[in-house]
Amino acid sequence: MVNFYKWTASNEQLFGLDLAKARDLVVECFYTAQKDKFQALKEKAGIPSSEKDVYDSITVMVRLAFVEVEGDFQQPTKEKLLKVVDFLNAREVMWGTPRDVVEHNKAQMLKVVNKLR
Question: Mean pLDDT across the stretch 73-98?
């Protein structure tokens, strides 16, 4: 059985927030929510599924989300981060992630991005 997890941004994580740190928190949130699903898919496909392998795959997924919204993973903007959040949340819904997890995590990611100036 695949579990999905809610992620919450801590005050420490929001301290000194800049665009790169916000992007990394989006990766962390998406990883927290989807790690079990990605690991199960990797295991089913017979490919390496260590925690690092799963984290790397999720980072690639976030990178691809930046490509989809015509953004730059290395130099994110607030506008593109918001679009990436929407893109990733749409994927989660499409993959069958429970609605309460999707909504909670989206609210947390928006909390992060909206904290940016």
Answer: 95
